[in-house]
Amino acid sequence: MLTTVEPTQFPDKFPPLLYSIALADRVVLVVTGLDRAFAESVATLDLFDLPVSVYLSRGVGEAEVRRVLKGSRFESAPLAELDIPHLREELIAWNPPPVADGPVSVRLDHAFPVKGVGTVALGFVRRGTLHAHDRLRLWPTEREVEVRSIQSQDVDVREAVRGTRVGVALKGADADEISRGQILAPGTGLTIGDRFVLRDRRDSRYYRGRVEKGAQLQLLVGLQLVPARIESVTPERLEISTDRPVVAERGDPAWLADLSAAPGPRMVARALLDEVKLDTPAPTSSPA
Predict the structure, then answer these.
(1) Using one digit for the tens of pLDDT, what is the confidence trace for 64-97?
(2) Would you tell me the crossing angle of helices 62-69 and 36-45 to the nearest 10 degrees?
(3) Global pTM value
(4) Domain boundaries, the chain
(5) What whole-number distance in Å separates Cα of residue 174 and Cα of residue 177?
(6) CATH number of the domain at 105-185, please?
(7) What is the C-alpha separation between 66 and 69, in angstroms, rounded?
(8) Where residue 121 falls among pLDDT bands split at 50, 70, 90?
(9) Predicted confidence (pLDDT) per residue in 37-51, tens digit
(10) CATH class of 191-277
(11) Which residues contact 57 (CB under 8 A, 6 or more apart)?
């Protein structure tokens, strides 16, 4: 079963591009013109380790596109002319994402009330298998919820594996207590933090700002995009604080973005979470 996600509000808004890529296992980059949106898409995807297929709309020259891609991690990627029937065949032929070992983890991106059903949350299973009647924690809150039922592509299912887009009817939380980035998972195994040490940092070659102490940025972990401040910088590590608790695991990938960088691309760096600390109490519930 294939699910496609498109950042329809980009380039007017930058976060939808981040959310779409964060949900993806593979990326289709359709080049409609050599504009800022294309340049920023290249700069952003350069920091995500995802397979990228590049398609050129009619009238877009391959030589010009190669110049923009030069220096990026997919500068040698094959370039194909956009042909919708061919693209549809390629999408159908894609192999499903490998099943990730470990307890179930569902990243949520939306929730709403349904008359006669109650709270319904939409999300993607990113690890393990989700079962109807699972009792899980709504991270980063301490609230326990029950999965009353599961739908995928508007079909009732008893379980859903990694990569599946799901709608889950939940007992134990109202829709306005669920926000994008929260995670359904067992009650233990994850960590909540608002101070992080980052290692193995890879800076964007396109970012024009400076990575320095006091810089106000945005931290992306999973679907959580939160304001962050750089507390210290050394060649080996970067320490940051966030304005609210974030669900994370040591070794998780994280990205830094500068939403105020008007002159150029807004991606700053990619790194791995080396330490996760909590200086303030985790919330018992979280407003949408």
Answers:
(1) 999 999 999 988 889 999 999 988 888 888 877 7
(2) 50
(3) 0.91
(4) 15-93, 105-185, 191-277
(5) 5
(6) 2.40.30.10
(7) 5
(8) very high
(9) 999 999 999 999 999
(10) mainly beta
(11) 30, 31, 32, 33, 82
The residue among 281 and 90 whose pLDDT is bigger is 90
DSSP of the chain, one letter per residue?
-------TTTTT-SHHHHHHHHH-SSEEEEE--SSHHHHHHHHHHTTS---EEEEE-TT--HHHHHHHHTTSTTTT--EEE--HHHHHHHHHHPPPPPPPPSS-EEEEEEEEEETTTEEEEEEEEEESEEETT-EEEEETS--EEEEEEEEETTEEESEEETT-EEEEEEES--GGG--TT-EEE-SSS-EEEEEEEEEEEEE-SS--S---TT-EEEEEETTEEEEEEEEEE-SS-EEEEEEEEEEE-TT-EEEEE-TT--SS--EEEEEEEEEEE--SPPPSS---
* Residue that the structure tokens 């992080």 belong to: 196
